[in-house]
Amino acid sequence: MNTQLNTTEYREFLKELKIRIQSAQLKAAVSVNQTMLQLYWDLAERIIARQQASAWGDGILVQISHDLQSEFPDMKGFSVRNLKYMRQWYRFWSGTNAIAQQAVSQLDKPAIGQQPVAQIPWSHNLVIISKIKEQGEALFYVQQTIQNNWSRAVLTHHIETRLYQREGKAITNFKATLPAPQSDLAQQILKDPYNFDFLLLRKKHDEKELEEALIEHVTRFLLELGAGFSYIGRQYKLEVGGDEFFIDLLFYHTRLHCFVVIELKAVKFKPEFAGKLNFYVSAVDGILKTEQDNPTIGIIICKSKNDVVVEYALKDIHKPIGVSEYLITKNLPIEFQSSLPSIEQIEAELGGGDE
Predict the structure, then answer these.
(1) Are residues 195 and 224 in contact, defined by beta-carbon separation less than 8 angstroms?
(2) Among 174, 247, 284, 333, which residue has the fewest nearby CB atoms (within 10 Å)?
(3) What is the pLDDT at residue 109?
């Protein structure tokens, strides 16, 4: 190497080259996926049309599969099973309603890359059409996959835990306390209920047990909270006027650019919970928030709630607060309820739990 070469300058230059190459690789992968999906759409359309015109039964798929694999031995995707998936996918999205048109209206045109279903892998498309019946819900998961770069496993998790039915459903005062469009964005980060089935707790657990279990499984907890949440700490100490206060969980949301205070309640919602969280949110705004941060958001996650009571409790609160329930459908067996061991001990005793 040239001894006169500036090492730092070269490293920066090499970094730029790597970024260019990685970007090209990604674009190539996306292009290949779009081309393949265009082919699958075209094949499915032609097969369905010919079956209808010639009254061919599904047995013809076996012959088509055999002949295509013989003609194109280096290409994958022509199995009988995948040909059936192509037809199912085409039929699912080839409707005339507005949602179907939004998803695939240009699948047979050069602008295929503009269409949501062409921007996610084939395996993701199969997960969606195999688990969902309504096009509106399916399009939601297509768009979320694109926006959050979900893996197939994460997509499957969110479908199985019914994210579509839960996202943005919490009761909040965001429209009255946050400017648009932040109020709408903040509303969408909340779910109701939160699904904590990855925990194993006593039926009559308290806040401390719930908090410890969530932090013990913080990766699963963050997955349930959703994209953008960055964990800061539990029992986070705030000193106000010489007195110490401890908030259950503190996060920072990287998309909303704000702190998020979460208070856990293993009981039914009470109006006084909102007043206490209002104080915590005010304290975080006064102590931690900088000029670059948006207003802090508070979330109460409780075991149950009366929606009318929650609405009245939040009506005159001036800080942005939302209230949701949490759901745990599996509880710790009674023989473990006298003393609560660690999560690892419990899962070992029960044969691995949910991990």
Answers:
(1) yes
(2) 333
(3) 46
